[in-house]
Amino acid sequence: MKDGLRSQAARTLLPLALLAAGFAQPGCIRAPAATGAAEWIWADGIGADPGRPAAYVLLRDFELPAAPEAAARLFVAADREYAVHLNGHQIARGEYRRGEPIDEFQVAHLLRAGSNRLTIEARTPHGDGGLLAGIELDDGSIPVVTEGEWRFTTAWDPRLVKGETALADAGPALRPVRVWGRPPVGRWGRVSRGELRRPDQIWGASGPWRIVRVTASPGLEVEPGLRSSHRVDFGREVAGVLELDLRPPAADVQRELRTCLAGDCERRPLVLTPGRPAWRDSGRRSFDTVIVTGVPGLRAARVRR
Q: 264-278 b/e with 16+ CB inside 10 Å = b?
């Protein structure tokens, strides 16, 4: 009798033990991700050589039965930098911060009934990267997330970004993306959602605080022997988002940006999106001098608050 009870107890406990072991195994049973069905994606089959900078434009159309009357949250993270365009409006930019919540922005006022286009310009200094994004409505539904239906292009096309060109008409300029998988995956691990913010207004509404015309500024010095290297002196410490106007160089050369304050310089690759006549930094910085190398067609430098 006792042996029968022990056998019955063992049969009862064994599934429980296996279930507990299943919970302990990473990836076997996962809690719902904070980003829903969003997957990390990137450009497929055309990535830059390992260690070399790369920039892409990734985009997706999605439908809404009606314009949202309440909040709509765009959540986004990109390794290493991103700039978001929604229905042609440039609304947000940022950079990847390991271990910190991903960025979120209020975008309800930019959504409309019918077709919408979400476009994200992604840049990385080391070739491969990842993009994770989506839009969540006030009722908890997520009408668009990054997944395998997205497309990417290597060249900047204003009509495509603004939605004036249908994706079906873009032809071979658009290519399928690579899907890394849902969080947690790869070097990005688990992700958490951040606080809702208003879209950045630096793109058009706010005026430049400080601007230097590179072709005719008294503070400009071109480094001797380097026609594609420019030193732009703002005259005093400024704080804000750096913008550069340029003629996109055709040659695939190494480009570098140095932002300096009181002689102390931060050096990093300058990653340009092919065909784009402007570059904007992913965040605010403080500096008094900017040195740009590898860009012979630099026209102007601005700082926006």
A: eeeeebbbbbbebee
pLDDT, tens digit (0-9, with 9 covering 90-100), for 85-110? 999 998 999 999 999 999 999 999 99
* Separation of alpha carbons 151 and 175, rounded Å: 5
Instruction: Give me the domains of the chain, ranges plus CATH numbers.
Output: 40-197 (2.60.120.260), 208-304 (2.60.120.260)
Are 211 and 273 within 8 A, CB to CB?
no
Half-sphere CA count of 171, side-chain side, radius 13 A: 1
- Of 22, 20, 27, 21, which is closest to residue 190 (Cα–Cα)? 27
| Residue 104 · residue 26 · CB < 8 Å | no
Q: What is the torsional sign of CA 246, 96, 41, 269?
A: positive
Residues contacting 48, CB < 8 A, separation 6+? 54, 127
- Evaluate if pTM is beyond 0.70: yes
